[in-house]
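Researcher: I'd like a structural prediction for the single chain below. Treat it as a standalone chain; there are no partners to consider.
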Amino acid sequence: MPIQAEKIAQKLEKLLGELGNSENLVNPYFRISKGAPEQIHRYFFINTKFQRLITVTQLTFGIIVVIFKVLFLVGASLIFVKQYKFFKFKNKPRQILFVSHGIGMNLTLKEGDQFFWKMPEYLHNKGKEVAIVYTNHYIFGFTKHNKLLQSKSCDIERFLIPKFLRPSENFTYFKKISTLAIKSLRLAISKLRKEPAEFAILIKASIFFYSRATYSNYLLNQRIQEIVSFKGINTVALTFEGHSYEQFVIDETFKNFGKLNVVLYQHSPIVKDHFGIITFLRKTDHRLLIFTTGSYYKKLFAELSNKHHIEILGSNKSNQREVIATLTETPHILFVPEGTTYATKDMLILLRGMIKAEMNYFYTLRLHPNLKLNVALFWHIKKLQTSKRFVISKSLLSSDLASAKFVVYRSSAVGIESLKFSAIPIFYGSQENSGLNVLGHLDSKFPTIFSVDEAIAYFKATLIAPENNNRKKIFHELFERMDYNKLDILLDF
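Model: Treating it as a single chain, here is the predicted structure.
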């Protein structure tokens, strides 16, 4: 019987406990933040017939690949070291450090932040010295992206993290991860006969210590610790999605600086399969200040752990103005995949099947603003654009939702935002991914579709909108209006 995503997540946490050190969370292989297919595919070999053979083969080739990775990272750190001339600190006090993400529209926004909205500006206007550090998602374009961040309004210090470590940091990095990888390898050998699945996970994890993802987590932590080490910072604020780096950075910050305040902001929807958040809240020893977007999430977090201070801050998605519905005679179906290649491809396959079925609908695809469009996705979309019934949206989200009769989503916040309008939200994904449904806690108040054939059958049938007079109530339980006054608690820190 195949090992499901939740069981894999539990095995990972068990092994993490046996390794006995949260430093291992520098390696994201040990933490599934959300049970999405794009994360679970890393563990496909667990459910194969030749588990040990595949794992040993991966280890053999992995060792060869590791040598080239080490050479590449060392070389790249020398080539891109000039980026550090922009990563300089002014001789000024700082009190609050926000950790945001230098990706997509967050680079081009003139005001605010895609993840923290106007939280930094609010605290700055209240007299706090605020700085923001941004993760760097691009190898090239550092100077351009840094200029975009520095051009944002408001006198807030902003740092874009260089893409690679300083050359002088390479030895310490490889020494650290090699020590952790060897420890993982030793534990794997002890499980070779009795625990084949755990053996396979640990072998794969030992190779993954040399991955770009592990390197990025280590790099992020190094730069955060570097900024915090300057006198004055007493609060670090991070987004909260259950990623391994969140706990790694928090544990390292408390270890290095002791009495520091850590703030987490749950800016996006939480679903049943958010294994990383569930595990983190249950296991962390630190008392944290957690801001949520709505009362439902506050209650959920409080049920998982009673040691944290939890406040409802709200979401900027609730502050956006509503648009009057503009439905047309031919119904529009809006498709909103998340910002991953896998989720987008899955939605494009659904679209292709529905267009081929020649139903009387218009189809609108709304791509995630942070999606990196690769060649395969580009050609998928090009093929769909041969249909006169298909368009890619260039409109505001509110306009798309106002004109849509149906909104097809998987784990996108747009599924929730559709509740402010008359559109019917429809979850689309495989049955094993039903735990990704952002409205999954509502006991089937809205339709769920698990295959292309089901989708075609549903839209060909006589459609009756589900009776639900509590749409706005449900929306506000998940995304309340942003109340920046709740941040005043930080003024006393």
